[in-house]
Amino acid sequence: MSFTDELWDGISGTYDAILAHPFLTGLTDGSLPGSAFAFYVVQDALYLRDYARALAVVASRAPDAAATEMFARHAAEAIAVEQELHRSLLPELGIDAAAAAAASLAPVNLAYTSYLLSVAALGSYAEGVGAVLPCYWIYWEVGKELLRRGSPDPRYQRWIGTYGGEEFGDTVREVLAVTDSLGPSLSAGERQRVQECFRVTSRYEWMFWDMGYRMEAWPSFAGA
User: Fold this and answer.
1) pLDDT score at 94
2) pLDDT at 155
3) Which of 19, 46, 132, 184 is the most exposed place for a label (fewest CB within 10 A)?
C-alpha cells in the first residue's frame, strides 16, 4: 500500500460525508440556493489567497528543486484561479469584485487557513505537504463524482468541470507522486504527524462545504 493509499484510508468516512453533504447534492440536482453558492465562491476566492501562501511556504522548504518548482507553480496557479473567479463567475452571480475582495473570512475559513499557514511554517516539510494535500485531492475526487452526476444549472456545471477535468487531475497526480516519495523516509512518529495533518484538513474540507451551505457569519454583539 502506498503512503497516499494509507492517507486516504484514514479519511474514508470524512469523504463519504462530504459527498452526502446537501451543498454538493444541491449542486448536482440544482436545488442549492444561488445565494449559498455565491457566498461559497467569495469565501473560496479568499481561501485561495492564503492557500497560495501556504503552498509558497511549502515550496520554500522543499528538499529538492523539482518539488520547489512544483509547489511554487501551484501557488501561482491558485492565484490565477482566484483572479478568474473574480473575472467571470462573480459577475455572473451578481457579485461586485471589489465587494468580494473586501469581504471578511468566515469563521471556518479563518480557522482552516490559519491552520494551513501554521503547519506550513512551523511543522516539518512533510507535515506541510500533508496539510495542503486534501484541498487538491478531495476537490479532484469530488469533481470527478459530480461530473459523473452532472447538474441542470450551467453555473454549477461549469464549476464542476473545472475540478473534475483532466487538467486539474494532472496537477493532483503531481502532488500525490511527491507525497508517495516522502513515505519511505519518514519515521513512525513523523508518519503519524503527517497523517494527522491530512485528517485535520480533510475535516476542514467538510466544514468548508457546510460553512457555504449555512452561509456562516460571525456572531454579532450589542455595542461591538
Assistant:
1) 87
2) 85
3) 184
Q: Which of 82, 135, 141, 197 is catalytic?
A: 135
Q: Note if 205 is an active site residue.
A: yes
Quick check: 160 pLDDT over 90? no
Q: Which of these is catalytic: 82, 127, 141, 205? A: 205
pLDDT digits (tens, 9 = 90+) for 184-196: 999 999 999 999 9
User: Nearest-CA neighbor of 48 among 172, 178, 136, 123?
Assistant: 136
